[in-house]
Design brief:
6-stranded antiparallel sheet
Length: 104
């Protein structure tokens, strides 16, 4: 894991359990088991939810990687701990539960 991923994980860990998994040249970011965003080219992209749209209204919206169909917030305010806590708490409540794996 690179320095940026480690830094993002460290900052966001103040809010709860952060897991970063390698996926197709980028990384998926999970907060307490829910997918909240991606890390691509040392940039953190967060999913759009009512909370992230409100708290990150002034942030840039971009596609995290070529071929993506999902516009996401580019997050760069790592030093704002209060924002990180409010953001993750709100996003967690709004994101769907992880679907249980189907038993074969």
């Amino acid at each position: 894991m690179n320095e940026f991923n480690e830094y993002a994980r460290e900052v966001f860990s103040a809010a709860g359990d952060i897991v970063i998994k390698s996926m197709m040249g980028g990384y998926l970011v999970y907060f307490n088991g829910k997918l909240i965003g991606d890390i691509c080219n040392n940039e953190l992209f967060l999913k759009r939810t009512p909370t992230s749209n409100r708290l990150l209204a002034d942030s840039e919206l971009r596609y995290p990687y070529e071929g993506s169909k999902t516009l996401m917030h580019v997050f760069d305010r790592f030093e704002d701990t209060a924002l990180v806590l409010e953001l993750l708490d709100g996003m967690y409540a709004e994101l769907p539960e992880k679907k249980p794996k189907k038993v074969k």
